[in-house]
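To: structure desk
From: M.T.
Subject: fold request, one chain
Message: Could you run this one when you get a chance? Sequence is below, nothing fancy, just the single chain.
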Amino acid sequence: MNHPVVAALVGAIAGVIGGFLGVRWLDRRTKRDGETAAREIRERAERDAASRLKEAELEIKEKTLQHKASTEKELARVRDELRDRERHLDKRQEVVEQQTDDLRKQERIVEGTQRRLTERLEETNRRSEELAKVLDIQRQTLHELSGLSRDEATRRLLKGIEDDLQKEIGSMILRHEKRVQEMCEQKSREMLLTAMQRFAAAHTAESTTSTVDIPSDEMKGRIIGREGRNIRAFEKATGVDVIIDDTPGVVIVSGFDPVRREIARQALDKLIADGRIHPSRIEEVVADTQKEIEKFIQRKGEEAAQEANVQGLHARVLHMLGRLHFRTSYSQNVLRHSVEVAFLAGMLAEMIGLNGDLGRRAGLLHDIGKAADHELEGGHPKIGADILKRHGENREVVHAALGHHDEIVTEYPYTMLVATADACSASRPGARRESLERYIKRMEELESIAGGFPGVDQAFAIQAGRELRVIANARETDDTKAAKICHDIARAFEEQLTYPGEIKVTVVRESRFSDVAR
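Reply: Done. Structure tokens follow.
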């Protein structure tokens, strides 16, 4: 039984010894592997250190090269700047040297000039002394020859010089007056043309009609009524005359008051359109039409004042202004004419430095008297001035209405501006029309008045009566007489005729000589 135990014990010992040897072998193997790994790690670290050392050396060399390049570039820039400054200093030194040379030359020139001036001054003094001696000798000789004292000779000499100077001053004054007159005429012409071009209004306006169209001649009997009661009621209500003649399709309304005539015309149009024509209906329609016309007149006055930018007018003045819509002068609507004159007068006033608002106010109201000249005694300037004065207008506006036709002495510049604007508005081509008979009569009057003067052979009215060309007899007149004839004809036109604008009179006198060569 002990043999198995011994065998087990021996086997255990052998196992222990085998295990120990195995452990020793494994330990030795592990140590050998660790040394190998350590040696590899050390070799790899040495290689990395060597690589990084090379990279650091390369980076240091690269930075050194970059620094060297930047340093060389900066040195090159500094050298360039130094060279530029050196060139600039060289140029400045050359300029300074040139200026120094110029100054030396100038000094030499100045010295020479001073030397010559000194010589001339000495020569002048010497000649002055000689001249003084000669003058003394001449003066003594003159005194001995003329027998005049020095004071008497001086007085006569000064008197002669004064006479010559007065003649020279007179001629200079005439030249300056002529030049100033030409400048004033040119300037005023430019102002008028500018003002007329800036405001371009319609030249002609609607004429107030006095005829009423009817659909048929049967309507004439209905307008007349039984035993004429309708026409009598209409004429009594409107204050106009209704003329019914054989003219087909037309009834004529006649009246001196343009507003009444317009009321009658509109009322008759309404009655004809309505068809009910009897006295009570006539009175009703006429009353309604009167109210409409009054409102229309007031609105027209307000519109005209607003268009001309004139503020603060009395209601009665606005109403009178609106009545001018129905008033015509030479077929020119007076209200449109007043608005045009307002704009022209305002622009002219502004051009010469006056109050443009006051100029427009005076121009708008200058013909206000034409709204009532058929109701009151006197001409429209006086009537208009009285109306404006009663309603609180200032002196300049009242005086412009009173004197815009040059009937009184002008006291305010606005009166002259309004008169000028009035003439411009009236004399525009086509602004005023007249009948053929009146036109021919006016031309004949111009030629006949001029032909009545002695020494006038022929007279021709040209440019629609704006100019008269007169042919004077060369044998009976000279230049002086021709000038007097021209002046007398112009004055005769002013005294005997009424015309818008102005008439230019030109007298032509010429001598013609002829002979025959045989």
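Reply (cont.): The chain is about 70% helix and 5% strand. Let me know if you need anything else for the meeting.
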